[in-house]
Amino acid sequence: MGQRAFVGYPGDVRNWPILDPLAPHALAVARRGDEAEIAEPTGRLFNDLGLLLHAKADYAEAEPLFRRALAIDEQSYGPDHPTVAIRLNNLAQPLQATNRLAEAEPLMRRAQPTRSEALTLMAEAYRHHRATPQVIIVPVPCGGSPEPVRNVKPGKYPHDKREPWRPQRAIPNKAERLRRFPALSA
To answer: How many distinct structural domains can be found in the chain?
Structure first.
């Protein structure tokens, strides 16, 4: 349940209106899971809450959450797992931001050997996030009811009669731009 309750990337300010009201509940679920010694999703929830607070520059509140997430994941996965490297890096971030570099450096050094594995794990998580269908409500003119549209790309809305979106080729230099667009020279 906790895994589905706190969704979205906490570092993205666009998710804050959704995540802020959920944060106290997610913290309660994480603490309850910690008491019951349930490692997953408890470690992830502590980490996500820490990311939310870190993104808001509330480093004092984020640090203990990152520490607990690290402890849970070290116990579950062992010290050399890519998830532990991510947690080490996340804990080092508020320490760096509060100028506690002597504490942050050993964490970063410890995370370094498994960093490439951690980056691979993060890339897989990102691909999974991007593969999840996104629902967009498209406004319908003249009193119609809105319909959900899945996995739309720019220019592909049902009410959009323009040509589909195509990337534009870059014009190489200023002389070529002026030749193609004489109005720019005026």
So the answer is: 2
Closest CA to 26 of 10, 45, 12, 7: 45
Query: Tell me, what's the pLDDT at 139?
Result: 44
**Mean pLDDT (whole number) for 38-47:** 90
Closest CA to 63 of 100, 17, 28, 35: 100
In which domain, by residue range, is 171 found? 135-185
Has residue 81 got a pLDDT over 80?
yes
Q: Which of 52, 51, 46 is nearest to 65 (CA)?
A: 46
CATH classification of the domain holding 16: 1.25.40.10
**Tens digits of per-residue pLDDT, 151-163?**
445 444 454 444 4
Residue 35, token pair as written in the block: 């008491």
Residues 41, 80: one domain? yes
Q: Are 92 and 67 in contact (CB under 8 A)?
A: no
Q: What confidence tier does 169 reach under pLDDT thresholds 50, 70, 90?
A: low
Q: What is the mean pLDDT of the chain?
A: 76
Domain match, 165 and 152 both: yes
d(CA 156, CA 175): 34
Length of the chain: 186
